[in-house]
Amino acid sequence: MSPTLTPPEARDCKSIEDLLAWYANGTLGVADRAVVEAHVEGCTACRTTLALERRIVENMRAPRDNVEQSPHAGWQKLVARMDAHESSKISAEEDVTETFAAQNAATTAVASGGNAPARNSRRRVNWPAALGAAVAVQAAAIAVLTVALVRHRQMQEAPLFHTVADADPTLALHGRLVRIAFDSAVVETAAHGIAGEAGGKIASGPSPQNVYTFVFPDSVDVDQKVSTLRRRAHVLLVEPVILGEQSHTE
Amino acid sequence: MTSLDFHPESPSSGAVDDLALLNRVSQGDRDAFRRLYSHYHRRLHRFLMRLTRERPLTEEIINDTMMVVWQHAADFRGASRVSTWILGIAYRRALKTLERSRNTSAQDVIVAAAFAPDGAMLDALMQSAELHDWIDSALSKLSPEHRMVIELAYFLGLSCEEISEIVGCPLGTVKTRMFYGRERLRQVLLTLAAPRRLAESSATAAGSPLP
């Protein structure tokens, strides 16, 4: 049986042309393969094109040389690269860890008055435990500072009381002593004048409460002086300082 | 031939083993990765050597490709075959390399247009002992996109669908690139073969008796 002499239509050749490459590489489906085979049997042009495609495929798949490249050398290089990558990742993680540890150590050193030993060892840190410790240290430092601040303010605000039993330097003076409290109208200059008029002088004062200590010679009648001073304007309180027998004798 | 050997026309061989190996690789199993590397090294080497012609560069692309596999094995979702996924990575690496050394010779293509690809010329082309070299030369004059589709189809024996997945473009684009790639390849081949044919024609004319 001779092949048909009727050339296929150009449209058919165009559609077959698109399939020839996939026919030549062996991936065309069964139905399309049948269509191509039926067409090329009667079409010289497409048969020639297919033959060329097959030659190209054969040539491209032909071995280039007999030298087979071993994967060993490439594998060794890749392993080195993987190791380097892993190391850089671990190093980056440790840098972050060390930064945190250094901050933590600095906080601890401040809280302990600078007596904490400096540590520079490269070691892994348990992050939750480290965070908990840092928070605890900071909370303790805040508590200590708060207590210190409150005590300081309390000491500033507390009034200063002196009693006879206190270690008053005026008690060491020779003479008779009288404590006198003025109201705010009497300033220090006026107090000096009052002390002079009474025959004495200021031994100490004024205190924040405007209290003075006057000293008189031993020969003065202190009770009389106290009585006179109590009658003066702006005087709130006048009391003689009664010393013990031992003090008198010294 | 074992399942680890290279089959240009049956790239699906070893697909099940590949998946099992890749699962182990995703868990950091270096022994599994070494086996996967050995499995794909020969295939990638032959494919990439065709494109780069340089062993060091080929090895570099292989290791770049396999480093991506090592780092992203856990990202493989099984939407394609493992071989398709790995070849896709190698494709993109190779494409970058080819684009850097793009060497289009439009002059050759223009000259080729002067020669009508008649049957006699194609026959002569096929019979030429130099066809092997001419194909290499012609392929190097194609654009990277056209050349890669032809290499994937003719050298690796991949289907249109597989190439579509590897290249990451629609089937129609693969068919179009294949059509124009083959067309240009044929034109360049004819251009390379033309001087020889002209010489043969001249020799024939010189030897023929005068009318």
Describe this structure in words.
The complex is a heterodimer of chains A (250) and B (211). The longest helix of chain A has 41 residues, at 71-111. Helix content of chain A is 57%, strand content 9%. In chain A, helix 1 packs across helix 2, helix 2 (30-42) packs across helix 3 (44-61) and helix 4 (71-111) packs parallel to helix 5 (127-157). Chain A folds into 3 domains: 10-61, no CATH class; 94-154; 169-249, Alpha-Beta Plaits, CATH 3.30.70. With 250 residues, chain A is α+β, with helices and mostly antiparallel strands. The model of chain A is unreliable at 1-11, 113-123 and 245-250 (pLDDT under 50). Chain A is built from 8 helices and 4 strands. Chain A has helices at 10-24, 30-42, 44-61, 71-111, 127-157, 188-197, 222-230, 245-249, and strands at residues 176-182, 201-204, 211-216, 235-240. Chain B folds into 2 domains: 15-100, Rna Polymerase Sigma Factor, Chain: A, CATH 1.10.1740; 106-205, Winged helix-like DNA-binding domain superfamily/Winged helix DNA-binding domain (Arc Repressor Mutant, subunit A), CATH 1.10.10. The longest helix of chain B is centred in the C-terminal third of the chain and has 37 residues, at 171-207. Residues 1-13 and 104-116 of chain B have low confidence and may be disordered. The chains are: A alpha+beta (250), B mainly alpha (211). Chain A binds chain B through residues 17-18, 21-22, 24-27, 44-45, 48-49, 51-53, 55-57, 59-62, 64, 68-69, 71, 73-75, 77-79, 81-82, 85, and chain B through 8-9, 30, 34, 37-38, 41-42, 45-46, 49-50, 55, 59, 62-63, 66-67, 70-71, 119, 122-123, 125-126, 131-132, 135, 151, 153-155, 157-160, 162, 175, 178-179, 182, 185-186.
